[in-house]
Amino acid sequence: MGSRKTEAKKITFSNIIVYGVLMIAAILSIFPFYWMFVMATNHNSAINSVPPAFIPGKELVTNFQNVLSNIDFFGAMWNSLIVSTLTTLGVLFLCSLAGFSFAKFQFKGKNVLFVFLLVTMMVPPQLGLIPQYYIITKLDWVNDLKAIIIPGMIDAFGIFWMRQYISSNVPDELMDAAKIDGCSNFRIYWNITVPVIIPAFATLAIIKFMYMWNDFLWPLVVLRDESSYTIQIALRNLIDNYVRDNGMILSGTFWATVPLIIIFLLFNRLFIQSLTQGAVKS
């Protein structure tokens, strides 16, 4: 009886340690967003003071008005929303199709192609900048959102992720039964595979949407006109070489981060489900 009480105390103590560590990690993760919000609500003098302000101020509206007076904030947000949404939808469809093919079909050179796909993930994207820009120039897509959307619709990691998830969660017996019933390959993909891989869709959607929303280098290369700027390029124009208004800059950064938080909260449950799928699978 005494050993059971001791074991219960040990379990309780270990739980306290685990929850304590998780709470500290959560605070450390949330603090940058809180700090950014505090900076966005304070005047530049309060930000540069020693010690700096740690509580929200009263300058949130003023700082955001300064953002609107310097850049087309909502236009850039709309451009980023278009780019990120269309690219994400394209990646979900095309990468799931490719992953389905690699996972469930046998064809000549399949393993070689898959290894080549994995190798491309090791190549820094900066190495492809010049040839990609040459192609975009020949297609006359410079200063057009198509130059960002279409090249981003194929993602090596997306194909790899979908291939692994489909291999683990879509039984071959289910496909064989569907083929006996006369289903085509695309119908098997659409009616059987897609409902099963919804959590994988959510995970890939979060990753791709955040990547495209935060992408800076490629939009900087191909977008020239202010009306076509994405939000990251527009925020760059808030930085002045002589006078830096940190409250204004962080106000724009804060409001540009809000859509990412909303997307994550919407797909959070499916995201966690996809990561824990293998752990709970019998």
Please name the defining characteristics of this protein.
282 residues, mainly alpha, MetI-like fold, 2 domains, 14 helices, 0% strand, disordered C terminus
Quick description:
This is Cellobiose transport system permease protein. The chain is an all-alpha fold. Helix content is 75%, strand content 0%.
- Our count of helices gives 14
Termini gap: 34 Å
What's the helical proportion of residues?
A: over 70%
CATH topology of the largest domain: MetI-like fold
What is the CATH level 1 assignment of the largest domain?
Answer: Mainly Alpha
Secondary structural class:
mainly alpha
Number of strand segments: 0
Would you tell me the overall average pLDDT?
Answer: 87
- Order of H and E elements: HHHHHHHHHHHHHH
CATH hierarchy: architecture of the largest domain = Orthogonal Bundle
Radius of gyration, CA atoms, in whole angstroms: 24 Å
- As a percent range, the share of strand residues is under 5%
Query: Could you state the CATH homologous superfamily of the largest domain?
Result: MetI-like
Number of domains: 2
Largest sheet: none
